[in-house]
């Protein structure tokens, strides 16, 4: 397989944290995307969506593992009633959106995107890597239809989460579907599934391991050299894999990061803020929640409800997707 070869491209990065934004030096040189009409929503909210009434949502934690991300403190915020998809948006649903609108994603317009090196097709050969995170490769031709680059396909992954989609792409989908992306408070409220207290995961506080307790799609083994695939997956899993939480929502942690349409702000003291990586706190970053198939407690313990990171709205990778919500009348 194509592994780390050249380490002179990009900046920043991490297994689950921000990677270099897909931003052209001259934004005017990027072809514009087609306009996406707003949906009439004549069919209403899909029946599969879980309806959650207005209430008080718990956000954050009083036991942060990555305090510099702004995980603390545990607090409450009122949320209105909303309906949330049990699943992240699939390749099949995103494909219907593209077929109906002619939309071209940002990765397609840029002409490349980020792919994890163990997932790259063997024929690709040497690729450019990210300094400090060489497992991320700059792959020409990687996009939502070809998540790992030329030679890869979603033909047998219609029920997997769509990836290689930016926040702007997710917003465009929402305009077509008459939906929106969740806020952080809504996402955490839904992820807790009705569990009380300062709970760590959608299933409770038990920590996933590499042997006999694997309730979500994350990494097993030594990151980034070896994934034992003990949970059955190297990359994405079907959106209905693993057991749902108490609200019937699947993969709220693990599988893919999920965009929230909310700027990333760090709730932290000034000392921590000064120590933070400037890429994490700089203006223009938007939240992603839930962790991904690349997370492991030895490196990126962000597959927790309170965990959070962010990226620029035009960034896409092979481990970021989204799920949508509707406001309840």
From TrEMBL:
InterPro entries: CTDL_fold, Sulfatase_Mod_Factor_Kinase, SUMF_dom, SUMF_sf
Sequence ranges of Basic and acidic residues compositional bias: 1-10
Xref: SUPFAM superfamilies: C-type lectin-like
Domain spans labelled Sulfatase-modifying factor enzyme-like: 48-325
Pfam families the record matches: FGE-sulfatase
Biased composition (Low complexity): 24-40
Region Disordered: start-end pairs: 1-40
Single GO term (MF): formylglycine-generating oxidase activity
PANTHER family, sorted: FORMYLGLYCINE-GENERATING ENZYME, SULFATASE MODIFYING FACTOR 1, 2
Record's protein name: Formylglycine-generating enzyme, required for sulfatase activity, contains SUMF1/FGE domain
């Amino acid at each position: 397989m194509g592994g780390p070869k050249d380490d002179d491209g990009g900046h920043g990065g991490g297994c689950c944290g921000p990677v270099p934004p897909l931003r052209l030096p001259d934004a005017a040189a990027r072809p514009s995307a087609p306009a996406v009409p707003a949906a009439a929503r004549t069919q209403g909210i899909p029946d599969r969506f879980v309806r959650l009434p207005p209430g008080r949502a718990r956000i954050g934690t009083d036991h942060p593992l990555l305090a510099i991300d702004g995980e603390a403190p545990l607090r409450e915020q009122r949320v209105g009633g909303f309906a949330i998809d049990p699943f992240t948006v699939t390749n099949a649903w995103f494909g219907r959106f593209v077929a109906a609108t002619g939309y071209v994603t940002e990765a397609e317009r840029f002409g490349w995107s980020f792919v994890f090196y163990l997932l790259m097709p063997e024929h690709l050969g040497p690729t450019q890597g990210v300094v400090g995170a060489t497992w991320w490769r700059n792959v020409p031709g990687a996009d939502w239809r070809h998540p790992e680059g030329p030679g890869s396909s979603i033909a047998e992954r219609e029920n997997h989460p769509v990836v290689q989609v930016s926040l702007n792409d997710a917003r465009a989908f929402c305009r077509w579907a008459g939906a929106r992306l969740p806020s952080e408070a809504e996402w955490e409220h839904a992820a807790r599934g009705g569990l009380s207290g300062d709970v760590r995961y959608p299933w409770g506080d038990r920590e996933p391991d590499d042997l006999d307790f694997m309730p979500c799609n994350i990494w097993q083994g030594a990151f980034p050299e070896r994934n034992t695939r003990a949970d059955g997956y190297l990359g994405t899993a079907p959106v209905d894999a693993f057991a749902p939480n108490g609200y019937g929502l699947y993969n709220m942690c693990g599988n893919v990061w999920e965009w929230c349409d909310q700027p990333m702000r760090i709730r932290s003291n000034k000392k921590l803020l000064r120590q933070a990586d400037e890429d994490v706190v700089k203006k223009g970053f938007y939240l992603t929640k839930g962790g991904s198939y690349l997370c492991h407690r030895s490196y990126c313990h962000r597959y927790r409800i309170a965990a959070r990171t962010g990226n620029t709205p035009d960034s896409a990778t092979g481990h970021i997707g989204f799920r949508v919500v509707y406001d309840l009348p």
